[in-house]
Amino acid sequence: MTLPSTEVQKAVYARLIAANIPGVGSKVFHRVPASTPLPYLEIGRDLISGNDDAGDFYDCEVEIEVFATTIPEAKAIAERIHAALNSPLVLNGFSCHEHHFVGLRPSRSIQGSDIVETIVVEFEYMIQKIA
């Protein structure tokens, strides 16, 4: 059985790049390079669970982490992410039956001498393998 994790990550990445989010542009990473200037996005920490209640489905929880210099900037970026991902994903070998925006989780961290505002944007997708 093939898991949808790689296809989900490819679809999320493609949508975020296509959205051309102001300030972020192509700074969408699976692993953030050192010294990357803010703002940027980190993707790839997804939770994939089997769901065989009504067939061969997967519940996919997708998190996109926003790193920005201010809360207003992080919130504006989160809004653009919501617009880009709040619809069914188009996947190779799988179909997306449901999608839900879960929520936003803000936090603050220190990187070197800088305060970094972070918001995790979370979505859920119900995915089924195409036979």
How does the SSE layout of this entry go?
Elements: H1 5-19, E1 28-29, E2 40-42, E3 47-51, E4 57-68, H2 71-85, E5 94-111, E6 114-129
Parallel strand pairs: 1-2
Antiparallel strand pairs: 2-4, 3-4, 4-6, 5-6
Structural overview:
With 131 residues, the protein is α+β, with helices and mostly antiparallel strands. It has one domain (5-129): STM4215-like (2-Layer Sandwich). The chain is 23% helix and 43% strand. It contains 2 helices and 6 strands, in the order αββββαββ. Strands 1, 2, 3, 4, 5 and 6 form a 6-stranded mixed sheet that branches. Strand 3 and strand 4 form a beta hairpin. Helix 1 crosses helix 2. The longest helix is centred in the N-terminal third of the chain and has 15 residues, at 5-19. The termini are close together. The model has no long low-confidence stretch (mean pLDDT 93).
Topology pattern, helix = H, strand = E: HEEEEHEE
CATH architecture: 2-Layer Sandwich
Kindly report the CATH topology.
STM4215-like
Q: Average pLDDT value?
A: 93
Instruction: Give the number of helices.
Output: 2
Binned, the helix content reads: 10-25%
Short description:
Helix content is 23%, strand content 43%. It contains two helices and six strands, in the order αββββαββ.
Keywords:
alpha+beta, 131 residues, 43% strand, 6 strands, STM4215-like, elongated
